[in-house]
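REQUEST ID: PR-0412
SUBMITTED BY: lab tech R.K.
PRIORITY: routine
TASK: structure prediction, single protein chain
INPUT:
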Amino acid sequence: MEVVKTTIAGVFIVEPTVFGDDRGYFFESFNAEEFEQKTGVKTTFVQDNESKSRYGVLRGLHFQKGKHAQSKLVRVVRGRVLDVAVDIRKGSPTFGKYVAEELSAENHRQLFVPRGFAHGFVVLSDEAVFQYKCDNLYAPQAEGAIAWNDPEIAINWQVDTADIILSEKDKHHPLLKDAEWLFDYNAELY
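STATUS: complete
OUTPUT:
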């Protein structure tokens, strides 16, 4: 496994070592010991999720609040997505900045999104199957989100706005500057 630092500390691209031959391929998608050794992050994942979406579906930008905050390790097992992590830690030198990475079934890349970040993705292929590990259980009462199209964050989603498909809930999230609950950069999140 190779771990690539991004422009925001704590957000990592994980590139597994893929062994392939004429039969297909094999790779270890997660190894806790190696992950901790290469990232410095000790985490225990307690929930795995999967979604299937068609081209243009945008899910996000979501997070879990307070004691329900989650770190995620995300990947695509079919298709392609643009995956985005936005720093929403007040006082952070990268507050409001984001990392965007194309994840696909072909490149096998994964993105580690730490607590204190809003997360979302948009489907770039005809359809995509998206999987992610979480280090805390989902709690509906702790849902938080910010607007996917916040002009101050200015994410280039790589999909024409007319082709974006949102859930009813994702159409009505506040801008980052108006969000009522965010994380404190100096608080312990792990």
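NOTES: The chain has one domain: 2-184.
REVIEWED BY: pending
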